[in-house]
Each structure stands twice: as structure tokens, then as C-alpha cells.
């Protein structure tokens, strides 16, 4: 059994993927070939945003978004400590300071009330740790739609507006999800997503995209992803990066996008089957009214994590832990001066959470095996 089964998806769309790859091999435009623009147009319309700019990875999508907002030394960018390192890494790469805010215990996404308090603390110079006493300029917020569930954008956008900050949606895991009738990717000033193979819409390599309704920001990102280009390739008007999406990845993503809606629906069915069967055993994901998850991961919480993981391993069922250590306790962010206990909800989740196999091709038989193993583990924890 696979944790994420990409082979079954390939079997479904093999001829179309091969046709698209062959077409790229025929025309030979490996960099910025026509498939790139075709994908951007299709993705913008899928999400409902005016502009989509593809790029080389989800990390570059975040980096380019921050560069377009001219984030730099002295700036504070608020984000969650319960995410993949890329979310906060890009802030440091630009010389700015990530300021962490604890998560909501039900959704595992950034807590808007704590966000408001932390912004005020930074403004009044009363934050703890190594940044204590430093004069930081609050600049932006990066909420993460963890496991595919959109963060609380009504509240976050309200807080941001009150303080004049931009909001960058880290939608690496959530493309295909929605928030009160709006699609993920169109919930804040700007959004960054990833096409890493294991993501809901994944390529066969690295890739990413930025979405925005702001034409000036969209144009700046187009320039930044190609070495800060101006009117042509050898007119360089700003410092940028080599952050383009390969034509081959665009060609692979196009047929995957054709079946994406139906895959998201299948993910909903898998998640519903899990939640119905597991709600008495472990804490199952909470999806607030009006929101829908893209189900990048199906994660459960229990104080007896080790017992469940051992039983699942014995039964040949793959699992994963996202994330075993919150970012404020990672060595890479040691210079920020955070300590254990600073973000108790994130810390508790990192000790109790784990993820089960989740993909659109998980059949009822395999899922029954997983549920059975979890039930047996549950009986073991009571014995
Ligand atoms: C929340 C989050 N942000 C950013 C990224 C970075 O995406 P990529 O691996 O495409 O650079 C990931 C991917 O793992 C992610 O899960």
C-alpha cells in the first residue's frame, strides 16, 4: 500500500501525459514553451484569480511573492510555526524576520486572535526572545492552509487591513479547496502554491505558481522569475532569480488539471469514510462550515500516537508525521531565540498528530484495512 499512489493516477491518464510530453519533445521549446502560458491561463480561471505566474517550486512562489512586496531587513512577517520550513525560510532568505504565532487547536491553522496580539506586541516592541527590543516593521502575514484546509481568511484579512499588512496565502497544500464559495488561491492579496509530486495537483518534479488580482504585482513576479528582466532578456531592471517552471512540467500538469476536480471529489469521499469510522477512536479533522479541504493529508490526533503507529507499521500501512518539530524549535531558527513552551498548541500537535494514506485512488478495501488496524490499535490502548 502506498501513502500517496501516483502510479494509479498515471495509469488513468497515461496516453494524454505521453502525448503532451511528446509534443514538447517535438517543438523543443523547453524553457517558457507554449504549455507554460496555457497552464497559467487554465489555472487562473480554475482559481478565479486574474493572474497566475508559474514558477520553479512552491518555495520560489513564496519567495517571489515576498520579493514583489519588497520584503527585506527590518521587516517582520507573521506566520505559523506548524508548517513546512519553506514558509518561514523564504522570510529569512530576504533578511527579514519571521515572527511566529500559535495555531488554532481545531484547525491547526494560524490563530487570528493571537495574530492580532502578536502584531500589536511587535508594534509596541514587547515581543520575547532574540527579537525582544528590536525595532521591526510589521509587513505581511503568511497563513498556511495546512493539510489542505484554508486558514480563517475573513479574520486574517481584517487584522491585516487594520495594520496595513499584505496577506500571502501559503496554498502549497490546499489548491482545490475552498473558503465560503471562493477557491483557494483567491482568498488573500496573493497566493503561492506547489506542484511538488505529492501535492493535490503535483507534477513529475518541482513546480509552483503565484496567483494575484494585482496587475503590477503579477508583472513584477514575471520579471523577478526571469532574473529581473525588463523589456527583453538582456534588459535587467531588478535583481531576480531563475525561477521558471519547465515546459515539460507544464505539459504534465495540463492533463492532470483535466481530472483535478474529480480527484478532489474522490479525496472528499476518502476523508468522509475515514472520519465516519475513526471519530470515536482519535481526533479527526475539523472542517469549519463553509470551508472545504483539498485533503493533501488526512491527519488525526491522539495522546497514544506510538501505539497507533506501531500497529499500523505491523500491518504494513505507511504513515507520516507532519510535523514532528515546530519551526520555532528548529536549529535553523535558533537565532530567533524561541524556547519550548512558546507555542504550546503547535508543540502539543507535533507530539500527537500523524497522517494516514490519502489519495484519490485509495480503494475501499485498502481503506477498510487501515481502519481495521486503527480499531485494533485502539483496543490495545484500552487494554
Ligand atoms: C506549506 C508548504 N509551504 C511551502 C512548500 C514548498 O513547496 P515546494 O516543495 O514546491 O518548494 C511546501 C511543500 O512541501 C509546503 O507544504
Task: Describe the structure in your own words.
By secondary structure, this protein is α/β, with parallel strands linked by helices. Helices cover 41% and strands 13% of the residues. The protein contains twelve helices and twelve strands. The protein has helices at residues 6-27, 34-47, 58-68, 86-93, 112-123, 153-163, 215-224, 247-258, 260-278, 305-314, 344-352, 364-382, and strands at residues 51-55, 75-79, 97-100, 137-142, 166-170, 178-179, 182-183, 190-194, 208-212, 291-292, 298-301, 353-356. The protein has a seven-stranded mixed β-sheet with strand order 1-9-8-5-4-2-3, sandwiched between helices. Helix 1 (6-27) crosses helix 8 (247-258) and helix 9 (260-278) packs parallel to helix 12 (364-382). The chain is globular and about 70 Å long. The model has no long low-confidence stretch (mean pLDDT 96). It binds pyridoxal-5'-phosphate. Pyridoxal-5'-phosphate (PLP) binds next to helix 3 and helix 4.
Give the arrangement of secondary structure elements:
Layout: H1 6-27, H2 34-47, E1 51-55, H3 58-68, E2 75-79, H4 86-93, E3 97-100, H5 112-123, E4 137-142, H6 153-163, E5 166-170, E6 178-179, E7 182-183, E8 190-194, E9 208-212, H7 215-224, H8 247-258, H9 260-278, E10 291-292, E11 298-301, H10 305-314, H11 344-352, E12 353-356, H12 364-382
Parallel strand pairs: 2-3, 2-4, 4-5, 5-8
Antiparallel strand pairs: 1-9, 6-7, 6-10, 8-9, 11-12
Helix pairs in contact: 1-8, 2-8, 3-4, 3-7, 5-6, 9-12, 10-12
The structure holds pyridoxal-5'-phosphate.
